[in-house]
What does this fold into?
Amino acid sequence: MIGKGGERFQHLLSEYVREEDCFEKVVTLAGVDVSYKGDIASVACVAMEEGVVTQEVTWIGQPSFPYVSSFFALREFPLIYEAVRRVPCDLLFVHGHGRAHPRKFGLACHTGLYFQRPTVGVAGRILVGEFDNSYGDWTYLHFQNEAVGALVRTQEKMNPIVVSVGHMISLKSAVDYTRLSVMAHRFPEVVHLAHLLSRKTLDSR
DNA sequence: GCGACAG
DNA sequence: ATCTTGTCGC
It folds into this structure.
């Protein structure tokens, strides 16, 4: 596995994550996702402005690290880096966790810190934390005596998604922008489209 | 020891 | 993530 060194590395870098809104206005949104087929990875980054797709970038590569829960960035960051670096945006949604992570340093934090951009992590399942089961549209996710994320019900009758700060944004804003960015699916539209595009790119090759 | 464990 | 058919619901 990775060992204590990897955990210390994440703990150390988590200190540099900023949880305040470090932006003026959000015009361009972007989302990244990855699909796999054997040892081939397909990355897609989609940008939107006012509900209209303005840029699509794809990248095919090979993961150089196995999937290990809580060390997801070691596997996916080198891959999403190639697509994200070509897509300028005001706010980036990453499919994975941000601060809602054992060492408060998930893939979204890793990505936000590297690019120094406002980043939000959106995941389909909880990695760490507890929450009050009775809530309306959303509720905070607590871990080690602090709110590290939020469960957001983006669609009725569907399981909530886990939203957390990646970098340069407050948790409340992360929740607000996530809800504003969801259209007809469980995840923010840019992430949903990136998922479809990465999948499509993989199938047609 | 046993179960959990982002994608 | 991926392997996979039908099926319930809007």
In short: Helices of chain A lie at 4-14, 72-84, 107-115, 171-181, 189-203.
